[in-house]
Amino acid sequence: RKVEEENEKKYARKDIPGPLQGRWFLFSLPSGQDMVSILQLVQNLMHGEEEEETPQSYRLQNVGEQGHMALLGHSLAAYISVLDRERLRKLTTRILSDTTLWLCRLFRYENGSAYYHEDDREGLLKICRLVIHSRYEDYTTEGFHVLCSKQPVIYISSAARTGLGQALCSQLGLPLSCMCRVPCNTMFGSQHQMDVALLDRVIKDDVESGKLPLLLVANAGTPGAGHTDKLGRLKELCEQHNMWLHVEGVNLATLALGYVSSSVLAATKCDSMTLTLGSWLGLPAVPAVTLYRHEDPSLSLAAGLTSSQPVEKLRALPLWLSLQYLGHDGIVERIKHASQLSQRLLENLKNLDFIKTSVEDELSSPVVVFKFSQEYSKRDQTSHAAQASTIQHPIISNERHIYDTFNQWLGEQLAQLVPASGVDVVELEDEGTCVRFSPLLTSAVLGTEIQDIDQLVDCLKMKIPVLTSTLQLREEFEQEVRRTVGLLYIEDLGWPGLGVVRYNYHSDEKNDDKQEKELEKINTELLKKLNELESDLTFSLGPEFGGQKNCVYIGMVTEDLDVSELVETIAATGREIEENSRLLENMTEVVRKGIQEAQLQLQKANEERLLEEGLLRQIPVVGSVLNWFSPFQVSPKGRTFNLTAGSLESTESTYVSKAQGTGTTPPPTPTSSLAKQKLPGQKAFRRSLRSSDGFSETSSISHCDDLEKMDQRPPALSPGHEQGPLETEKTEEQKEVAQAQTDTEDIHRDQSPPDCTKVEEEASQR
């Protein structure tokens, strides 16, 4: 028995992980760890490792007093749970009833019940189980056999959040065939609203095929664009087919305001709705709430919407505390502030060219979605005013892909420059990639203010010219690269910039690996050379994943970019690197052959020296004595390798003159001669702002003054003086001006009257 107990202890100690092993083993330390050590361990886990891995500034979310109240609710729930059963029952009933009543009054949902849950999809899942129990009477006893007789069908919009249908089928144990995605409008109305007429036909077809329409999930604010379905018509359709209508979305928050749009107000007549108060009010760790109406409490208990356990009812305690702290005015003020932020941004976007907005209601839309589109400007706004909020243009697939890439870059830049705005990038089915501003989801947490919106608009104004210029110069850059010998244009629609180019290295080498390495070496060196230039352009190797290899990626540009000069510089720099590489390879081969030839000549010279000295001089002792009596005079014969000529030469001249000859002058290193002279302080690849028009008659005086100043200069430059780039550019102009001025003076001299003073002097001399 002792052996078995020891084995059990060893086995138990081996299986317990982490701090409980060894000296921290629980049974070896009956007192455990103290509170300070445990809290220090938690603090290290929260901050220590992250600060080491990410040296940039890291901070937790700014939690205000209302956030502390919500966090306090979790601690109080743990303390309250230890009360005696009767007192606990009374307290939890009071908390649950108060919170449910406040929420129903606040969001205009009369005679409703509430279910509090951590996952925002859990409420819809419980509602589905409630509807199944209601429509299938024998479901409690028969189970899935009842579902086989009539297959249930759940309808969701194609604009619903991703993965919602799969999650419901997985949790309910239903096949994916029970989930029906309803398309949105294609001809009339918003492109993000459910097509009611099509839904009616689909439901009728399912009924005729023996299926049972069960539930419809509608949106009061789609996850992408924030549009609201026609809830009034959908409610009528659900009543006609005895279906349950569930509504979710961010626009449900506006039910707490004094003015509510009719489309959102129709949500108060639905069978159930899900509210996510945590993001709307900036409350951390508060549960989501599903409000519903149902008369049978037993079915609600069977579906899990209610619980007989008092501890389960304590989920509402954080929300109960937070709602009391904020009060009705505080809750309405936060939601109203988010709506005002959306209206402020929407008003500013209306005055910007090349920005297309997609909002459902310009007067009260809490979500603003916009994108950069060169086809849409305020010049043709009058022709678009009568159309719907979403405007469709016939854009080919490549152009749409380019616009998606540019809008992805725009959204990332705005989010980085103004992080307090909370903008993000969304993918919409019809519009493509867009930038979304949804303050109801972010403003309470980030503390977004009006000045943040103004800063966001200012940043957007700075980015629009860059996007427009880059989009216009992309085609010109492609044409220039295709016309230039030695460059290869790489089409990458996913790159937000001017384009992608590769220096095409041609070699007779049949080894593909060696040629690939040489190509990589040249383009890497080309990228390094381009980054060394003083320019505003960004050159890189492209994205980390999915980009082309051995290419130079050029980022966003401005309108004053000289595309031809940029392409010429890239080609010239690539040729320079290639020539230097080939010169180095040729020099390496020449040096190798020269060394081999020098070794052969030196070996031959040694053999000749042995023949001249004789055999006796090679004997160690005899040779020393013989050399002492009769020294053998021989001139040293070495070899020198001329890198310029690539040939071996004798060193006799070096020993005679006591100095090493310089040889011929090496050829100049190939350089990029296509680089243009720039004015002082002017960046590379910029168009010169100096006008090239002819000289006007009104500017003749200033030209004469310039000529007089030129005549006063010394005729020759000092030896140490170097001609600057500005003087080089002015030389040709000054010659033309001087010649024109000389011709003008000759004409005036011929037509001018005689000088009286000169005539009198000539007369006096006579």
UniProtKB/TrEMBL annotation:
GO BP annotation list: carboxylic acid metabolic process
Keyword Cell division: no
PANTHER family the record matches: PTHR42735, PYRIDOXAL-DEPENDENT DECARBOXYLASE DOMAIN-CONTAINING PROTEIN 1-RELATED (PTHR42735:SF1)
Protein name: Pyridoxal-dependent decarboxylase domain-containing protein 1
Region of interest (Disordered), ranges: 654-766
Assigned keywords, A-Z: Coiled coil, Decarboxylase, Lyase, Pyridoxal phosphate
Domain PDXDC1/PDXD2 second: 365-471
Cofactor(s) required, per the database record: pyridoxal 5'-phosphate
PDXDC1-like third domain location: 477-582
Keyword Lyase: yes
Family the entry assigns: Belongs to the group II decarboxylase family.
Gene name per UniProt: Pdxdc1
GO MF assignments: carboxy-lyase activity; pyridoxal phosphate binding
Compositional bias of kind Basic and acidic residues: 703-712, 727-736, 745-766
Compositionally biased spans, kind Polar residues: 691-702
Source species of the chain: Neodrepanis coruscans
SUPFAM superfamilies from the UniProt entry: PLP-dependent transferases (SSF53383)
Coiled coil ranges: 588-615
InterPro entries assigned: GrpII_AminoAcid_Decarb, PDXDC1-like_2nd, PDXDC1-like_3rd, PyrdxlP-dep_de-COase, PyrdxlP-dep_Trfase, PyrdxlP-dep_Trfase_major
